[in-house]
Amino acid sequence: MNSSSRKQIMRAARELALNLLFQMDVARLSFEDAERAALEHAKVNPESLDIGIALARETWVRADEFDATATALAPDWPSERQPSVDRNILRLGLYELEYRKQTPVAVVIDESVELAKLYGTAESAKFINGVLDRAAKARTSGEQGKADDGDAA
Prior knowledge:
mainly alpha; N-utilizing Substance Protein B Homolog, Chain A; 2 domains; disordered C terminus
Protein backbone atom coordinates (compact mmCIF):
# COMPACT_ATOMS: atom_id res chain seq x y z
CA MET A 1 0.00 0.00 0.00
CA ASN A 2 1.38 3.40 -0.90
CA SER A 3 1.70 6.18 1.63
CA SER A 4 -1.08 8.22 0.03
CA SER A 5 -3.67 5.48 0.47
CA ARG A 6 -2.42 4.79 4.03
CA LYS A 7 -2.85 8.49 4.79
CA GLN A 8 -6.41 8.41 3.40
CA ILE A 9 -7.26 5.30 5.44
CA MET A 10 -5.94 6.91 8.63
CA ARG A 11 -7.64 10.24 7.96
CA ALA A 12 -10.99 8.49 7.49
CA ALA A 13 -10.33 6.41 10.63
CA ARG A 14 -9.59 9.53 12.68
CA GLU A 15 -12.73 11.26 11.41
CA LEU A 16 -14.79 8.21 12.32
CA ALA A 17 -13.13 7.99 15.75
CA LEU A 18 -13.91 11.67 16.35
CA ASN A 19 -17.53 11.05 15.36
CA LEU A 20 -17.80 8.15 17.82
CA LEU A 21 -16.12 10.11 20.62
CA PHE A 22 -18.43 13.06 20.01
CA GLN A 23 -21.52 10.82 20.12
CA MET A 24 -20.42 9.26 23.40
CA ASP A 25 -19.46 12.61 24.92
CA VAL A 26 -22.37 14.79 23.80
CA ALA A 27 -25.21 12.39 23.04
CA ARG A 28 -24.14 10.14 25.93
CA LEU A 29 -24.32 7.02 23.78
CA SER A 30 -22.62 3.94 25.14
CA PHE A 31 -19.60 2.78 23.20
CA GLU A 32 -21.61 -0.22 22.00
CA ASP A 33 -24.40 1.99 20.64
CA ALA A 34 -21.95 4.36 18.93
CA GLU A 35 -20.10 1.39 17.44
CA ARG A 36 -23.34 -0.18 16.21
CA ALA A 37 -24.33 3.10 14.51
CA ALA A 38 -20.91 3.30 12.85
CA LEU A 39 -21.13 -0.28 11.62
CA GLU A 40 -24.57 0.40 10.16
CA HIS A 41 -24.08 3.88 8.72
CA ALA A 42 -20.41 4.82 8.30
CA LYS A 43 -19.41 5.32 4.69
CA VAL A 44 -15.74 4.40 4.98
CA ASN A 45 -13.71 1.46 3.77
CA PRO A 46 -13.53 -1.58 6.08
CA GLU A 47 -9.96 -0.87 7.21
CA SER A 48 -10.79 2.72 8.19
CA LEU A 49 -13.88 1.44 9.99
CA ASP A 50 -11.90 -1.08 12.03
CA ILE A 51 -9.11 1.36 12.85
CA GLY A 52 -11.54 4.19 13.67
CA ILE A 53 -13.55 2.03 16.05
CA ALA A 54 -10.35 0.84 17.75
CA LEU A 55 -9.05 4.42 18.06
CA ALA A 56 -12.34 5.55 19.59
CA ARG A 57 -12.46 2.62 22.01
CA GLU A 58 -8.88 3.10 23.23
CA THR A 59 -9.29 6.86 23.49
CA TRP A 60 -12.63 6.70 25.28
CA VAL A 61 -11.43 4.39 28.06
CA ARG A 62 -8.68 6.93 28.81
CA ALA A 63 -10.74 10.10 28.33
CA ASP A 64 -10.33 11.22 31.96
CA GLU A 65 -6.55 10.84 31.68
CA PHE A 66 -6.48 12.95 28.52
CA ASP A 67 -8.81 15.58 29.98
CA ALA A 68 -6.46 15.94 32.95
CA THR A 69 -3.46 16.23 30.63
CA ALA A 70 -5.18 18.84 28.46
CA THR A 71 -6.24 20.82 31.53
CA ALA A 72 -2.69 20.76 32.88
CA LEU A 73 -1.36 22.00 29.54
CA ALA A 74 -4.06 24.69 29.11
CA PRO A 75 -5.21 25.58 32.63
CA ASP A 76 -7.30 28.52 31.42
CA TRP A 77 -9.30 26.07 29.29
CA PRO A 78 -10.10 23.01 31.41
CA SER A 79 -11.82 20.24 29.48
CA GLU A 80 -15.29 21.16 30.73
CA ARG A 81 -14.87 24.66 29.21
CA GLN A 82 -13.65 23.40 25.85
CA PRO A 83 -16.04 23.01 22.94
CA SER A 84 -16.94 19.33 22.72
CA VAL A 85 -15.33 18.93 19.29
CA ASP A 86 -12.05 20.39 20.57
CA ARG A 87 -12.15 18.23 23.68
CA ASN A 88 -12.55 15.07 21.62
CA ILE A 89 -9.91 16.04 19.04
CA LEU A 90 -7.52 16.61 21.94
CA ARG A 91 -8.41 13.25 23.47
CA LEU A 92 -7.73 11.51 20.18
CA GLY A 93 -4.48 13.41 19.57
CA LEU A 94 -3.25 12.78 23.10
CA TYR A 95 -4.07 9.09 22.73
CA GLU A 96 -2.02 8.88 19.56
CA LEU A 97 0.90 10.79 21.08
CA GLU A 98 0.98 8.55 24.13
CA TYR A 99 -0.05 5.14 22.85
CA ARG A 100 0.63 5.08 19.10
CA LYS A 101 4.24 6.16 19.16
CA GLN A 102 4.83 4.62 15.73
CA THR A 103 2.89 7.60 14.33
CA PRO A 104 5.24 10.59 13.99
CA VAL A 105 4.42 13.49 16.32
CA ALA A 106 4.15 15.91 13.39
CA VAL A 107 1.56 13.65 11.73
CA VAL A 108 -0.53 13.42 14.91
CA ILE A 109 -0.50 17.20 15.35
CA ASP A 110 -1.14 17.93 11.66
CA GLU A 111 -4.03 15.48 11.45
CA SER A 112 -5.55 16.84 14.67
CA VAL A 113 -5.29 20.40 13.36
CA GLU A 114 -6.97 19.33 10.11
CA LEU A 115 -9.85 17.80 12.10
CA ALA A 116 -10.11 21.06 14.06
CA LYS A 117 -10.27 23.08 10.83
CA LEU A 118 -13.01 20.82 9.48
CA TYR A 119 -15.17 20.45 12.57
CA GLY A 120 -14.14 23.05 15.13
CA THR A 121 -14.50 26.77 15.63
CA ALA A 122 -12.35 29.49 14.10
CA GLU A 123 -9.97 29.21 17.08
CA SER A 124 -9.91 25.42 17.34
CA ALA A 125 -6.94 24.68 15.09
CA LYS A 126 -4.66 27.11 16.93
CA PHE A 127 -5.76 25.77 20.33
CA ILE A 128 -5.37 22.10 19.33
CA ASN A 129 -1.96 22.81 17.80
CA GLY A 130 -0.74 24.57 20.93
CA VAL A 131 -1.92 21.93 23.40
CA LEU A 132 -0.64 18.97 21.38
CA ASP A 133 2.68 20.71 20.73
CA ARG A 134 3.12 21.25 24.49
CA ALA A 135 2.15 17.62 25.13
CA ALA A 136 4.67 16.38 22.58
CA LYS A 137 7.44 18.55 24.05
CA ALA A 138 6.57 17.41 27.58
CA ARG A 139 6.65 13.78 26.45
CA THR A 140 9.98 14.27 24.69
CA SER A 141 11.56 15.98 27.69
CA GLY A 142 10.14 13.25 29.97
CA GLU A 143 11.61 10.54 27.75
CA GLN A 144 14.92 12.41 27.68
CA GLY A 145 14.84 12.58 31.48
CA LYS A 146 14.21 8.83 31.66
CA ALA A 147 17.09 8.21 29.25
CA ASP A 148 19.35 10.44 31.33
CA ASP A 149 18.37 8.55 34.49
CA GLY A 150 19.15 5.28 32.77
CA ASP A 151 22.56 6.52 31.66
CA ALA A 152 23.46 7.53 35.20
CA ALA A 153 22.77 4.09 36.66
